[in-house]
Every structure is written in structure tokens, then in C-alpha cells.
Amino acid sequence: MKKGPKHVAIIMDGNGRWAKLQGKNRVSGHRQGAKSVREIVEEAAKREVQYLTLFTFSTDNWSRPKDEVSLLMKLLVNSLRKEFNKLIQNNIRLQAVGALNELPSAVKEELDYVIEKTKKNTGLVLSLALNYGGKEELTEAMKAIAYKVKNSIISPEKVDQSTINEHLYTQNLPAVDLLIRTSGEERISNFLLW
Ligand code: IPE
Ligand code: IPE
Ligand code: MG
Questions:
Q1: 189 lines ligand 2 (CB under 6 A)
Q2: Which of 20, 58, 135 to mutate to test the pocket of ligand 2 (most atoms within 8 A of CB)?
Q3: Distance (Å, rounded) from C-alpha 139 to C-alpha 145?
Q4: Whose CA is nearest to atom 3 of ligand 2?
């Protein structure tokens, strides 16, 4: 069998428009989105994709109506609980990339639990991009490097691409082989810029 992509990244978009076409509300669009994620993860594991990175909640998404944000957070916690056994069964390692300390504590706790319990799994690495923005990620990396230079931990001449890479949330991820945006639009929306 032909070898498939090693790292697949998905911008999970179009939930609202999908729901509208079905004559349903945005909430059911997000629920259906969560169901699709389950199928995608299973299929990726089956096809021996090594890394699957899902753009789940962007730094910009906080500006959505309060009710929608809290629904998305609730859906996330529920999905983590519901899919936990599946992750274990399928040898999947969960991780999260983004400014995680700004997430609601219920989300943080559930996330920490699943990450800890799956950290020794050797199969698919499933990365959830949460409160993630590519520009924010690069800015944080630059800031951390600037501090290290200021404190003489590294010299400016030594700063190279690997220095920057090591300071990213996505430091352990290889380059993306296949990027999918599910809504059919062709925008990057500040995802995985490095
Ligand atoms: C993706 O669907 C869900 C998130 C970004 C969290 P959207 O909610 O963006 O759906 P559209 O793009 O409005 O159709
Ligand atoms: C992209 O979808 C972000 C995520 C999938 C989390 P959005 O619907 O939030 O992006 P824009 O606003 O269309 O760029
Ligand atoms: Mg959208």
C-alpha cells in the first residue's frame, strides 16, 4: 500500500453553515462537528497517520457570543470524557498546543488528565490546537528567546531556526504534509504559520 501523509492538519470549519443548510441551529452544527472528529481520528489511526493536528479553538474565537464559546468548551470537555477509552484502545497520545493557561479550568483539568493518561501511548499523536494562534505562538517564542538573550543564556549569534522551533507550542511536530479546511474556503486563519 502507498504510504500516506505523515502529518495531517485540519482547520475544522463550516459547522455553522452546515447546520444552516440542514435548517438547524449552530449548536447542532458543532455537535455534528464533534462526531466527525471521532470518525476522522479513527480513520487516521487506521491509516497509520503519525500526527493529526486539529484547529479546535482559535485565539480569535473568544470574540464569538458568550453562549457559543461556553458551548464549545462544554463540547470539548464532554468529547474528552467520551472518547477517553477509544484513545487508550487505539494507542493514541493526546497533546494540546496553544495558550492553555487561559482556558477555563474545567477544560484544563480534563485536558491534563487525558494527556497524562495517554502520554506513554506510541501510536497517533493527536494535537488539539486550543486558544491557538500562529502569530501568538511566534510572539511568545520571540519573547522567551529575548529573555534568554538578555540573561546571557544564549547569545544572539546562536539564534537559528532550531532555536525558534524549540520555543514553539508545536516543537515536537514535523512539517505538515496535508492541510485540510473542511468548509471549502481556502484560508489559513493564523494556523501553524512556522
Ligand atoms: C468551526 O465552525 C467551529 C469553530 C471554529 C470552533 P464555524 O463555527 O466556524 O462554522 P462557520 O464557519 O460559521 O460555518
Ligand atoms: C478557523 O475557523 C478557526 C478554527 C477552526 C478554530 P474560523 O471560522 O474561526 O475562522 P475565520 O474567522 O473564518 O478565519
Ligand atoms: Mg468558520
A1: yes
A2: 58
A3: 10
A4: 58
Half-sphere exposure (Cβ direction) of 119: Cα atoms closer than 13 Å: 7
Which regions of 68-188 does DSSP assign to beta strands (E)? Answer: 93-97, 125-132, 178-181
The model's pLDDT over 29-57, given as tens digits with 9 standing for 90+, comes to 999 999 999 999 999 999 999 999 999 99
Q: CA 186 to CA 183: how far, in whole Å?
A: 9
Distance 187 CA to ligand 1 centre (A): 13
For residue 152, report the distance from its CA to the centre of ligand 2, in Å.
Answer: 39
For the purposes of burial, counting CB atoms within 10 Å of the CB of 101, is it exposed (0-12), middle (13-18) or buried (19 or more)?
A: exposed
Active centre residues (catalytic): 13, 61
CB-based contact 24:193 (threshold 8 Å):
no
The number of beta carbons lying within 10 Å of the beta carbon of residue 168 is 19
Mean confidence (pLDDT) of the chain: 97
Q: What whole-number distance in Å separates Cα of residue 180 and Cα of residue 51? A: 14
pTM listed for this prediction: 0.97
Ligand 1 shell residues, CB under 6 Å: 12-17, 57, 61, 72, 183
Quick: pLDDT tens for 130-164.
999 999 999 999 999 999 999 999 999 999 999 99
From the CB of 129, is ligand 2 less than 6 Å away? no
